[in-house]
Write a structure and sequence with these properties.
It is a single chain. This protein is mainly alpha-helical and 47 residues long. It is 96% helix and 0% strand. Keywords: Membrane, Transmembrane, Transmembrane helix.
Length: 47
Amino acid sequence: MMRTIRIILFFNLLFYINLIFSISFLVTSLSTTNITCKISETAALGI
């Protein structure tokens, strides 16, 4: 019984770690695309 609970907890932990990583990756990719958009905007204004 305890073993199954441990396995469930372990997979839960893995799932949450994966979720946190994917959220942080999404945030960083969004911010980088935002930065590139701003750079292209300023370049267009410079031209």
